[in-house]
Amino acid sequence: MSLVLDPAAQDLLFREARTANTFTDEPVTDEQVQAIYDLVKFGPTAFNQSPLRITLVRSAEARERLVQHMAEGNQPKTATAPLVAILSADNEFHEELPELFPHFPQAKDLFFSERPAREGAAGLNAALQAAYFIIGVRAAGLAAGPMTGLDFAGVQKEFLDGDHTPLMVVNIGKPGEDAWFPRSPRLTYDEVVTTV
Amino acid sequence: MSLVLDPAAQDLLFREARTANTFTDEPVTDEQVQAIYDLVKFGPTAFNQSPLRITLVRSAEARERLVQHMAEGNQPKTATAPLVAILSADNEFHEELPELFPHFPQAKDLFFSERPAREGAAGLNAALQAAYFIIGVRAAGLAAGPMTGLDFAGVQKEFLDGDHTPLMVVNIGKPGEDAWFPRSPRLTYDEVVTTV
């Protein structure tokens, strides 16, 4: 009742959208990924630091290498999803800060000269952007299957470098047969929200 | 072109929505927060672990205590926003897992018996939910002002307990005068997305 967002959009993004475990064969195009990115890039991050990086696993050879690093239960869906993306945080995001946050170019040196501070900020803000990305996948009429059951060190070594920390792997496509479990229960408002 | 989501909803949630630094006096009601929660609670988390907790700072006394722990530049907006919420991660979320993920009740003991594993999972998944919450605030026709410029240890000690890690503080309300900077540039698709 209190929401301004159209009910159909609420359904598309949250109520009817589900984490898919199976997918149809319909490909996910670069144009779709670009449209998703061009929408969700506007989601807020601290100092507009935008640390999320996306690796699209398109070749059969790369897909095979990735599957080896997934938990056993995640291997079949990672092997068969139309598109698989590795989401990571760029711990050297501060190099882009003077361009990304022109109102306050000193932020780069004032807050992010030390690597641990950058890693903390990149981890949190890339996670926010990962959520925006999942919402964006749904906005494209596709289902996302985010997964954290994987060998993170292995994925980093195989696909990234020491400056990029993997956050999750996301399967993307049109949901297939028996794509999901029944919806699990959510915590009630009173279990989550307290007032002081 | 490739998106299914209605363009008005794209604008509301991403393109026209901005991080507000000033707000009108119009209150934000518990009914609005409940409507936001009842939408974004469906956003996905690993094992449906749902570790986000929300503390609404409603009393003048609590607001004053919170402002003391904010970075100087964030104090005026934290003092004047219609509603301020502390978002935190519940590191003991695993106690609810058998109820939240009935398909696989062993997950609680198999993956989350150790506190460091819980803290890592809670931090990432609560950050995803913080992003869903920001999107939900916008879905309610309100502006969010997420902030990480604060004394996290101070906020934890003052408002939470040892099992809850604060992630950010979010100002919520209708945007006021001069509510934001001009939109900062975003990284291009090619700066963010690579293909292997």
From TrEMBL, chains A, B:
<comment type="similarity">
    <text>Belongs to the nitroreductase family. HadB/RutE subfamily.</text>
</comment>
<keyword id="KW-0288">FMN</keyword>
<feature type="domain" description="Nitroreductase">
    <location>
        <begin position="17"/>
        <end position="174"/>
    </location>
</feature>
<dbReference type="InterPro" id="IPR050461">
    <property type="entry name" value="Nitroreductase_HadB/RutE"/>
</dbReference>
<dbReference type="GO" id="GO:0016491">
    <property type="term" value="F:oxidoreductase activity"/>
</dbReference>
<keyword id="KW-0521">NADP</keyword>
<protein>
    <recommendedName>
        <fullName>Putative NADH dehydrogenase/NAD(P)H nitroreductase SLINC_5436</fullName>
        <ecNumber>1.-.-.-</ecNumber>
    </recommendedName>
</protein>
<dbReference type="InterPro" id="IPR029479">
    <property type="entry name" value="Nitroreductase"/>
</dbReference>
<keyword id="KW-0285">Flavoprotein</keyword>
<keyword id="KW-0560">Oxidoreductase</keyword>
<dbReference type="Pfam" id="PF00881">
    <property type="entry name" value="Nitroreductase"/>
</dbReference>
<keyword id="KW-0520">NAD</keyword>
<dbReference type="InterPro" id="IPR023936">
    <property type="entry name" value="RutE-like"/>
</dbReference>
<dbReference type="InterPro" id="IPR000415">
    <property type="entry name" value="Nitroreductase-like"/>
</dbReference>
